[in-house]
Design a protein that fits this description.
By secondary structure, the protein is mainly α. It is built from 3 helices and 2 strands; from the N terminus they run H-E-H-E-H. The radius of gyration is 15 Å and the shape is globular.
Length: 101
């Protein structure tokens, strides 16, 4: 947990430094497990994949939104990039899309 807190602090510092230099930021959730994107079988592609736990994803989105709420140079946040893979289905799109609204 200590490394997570340290990395999160670094992210906040980077966002603050960018703001101090008039650079706008869009927070982006691209992958859960770091690596080269994207393959249909990389475990990062869709809700319920090996490295994409929807419960953790929603909690992380809420934490990011709360942390950067009111930070003037944070102008947006992507929910997740490039959803893909064999588990894709309309029901999960609506299920998890409505959880974050």
């Amino acid at each position: 947990m200590m490394i997570y807190n340290l990395l999160f602090h670094f992210l906040q510092t980077v966002v603050t430094t960018l703001g101090n230099n008039d650079v706008m930021v869009i927070l982006d959730n691209h992958l859960t497990k770091p690596g080269w994107c994207c393959a249909n079988d990389d475990g990062n592609g869709f809700f319920g994949d090996q490295f994409f736990d929807p419960t953790v994803w929603v909690a992380a989105l809420k934490k990011m939104a709360a942390t950067f709420n009111g930070v003037s140079n944070v102008v947006g946040m992507s929910l997740r990039n490039e959803l893909r893979g064999p588990k894709q289905n309309v029901n999960d799109w609506f299920k998890y899309g409505n959880v974050i609204i």
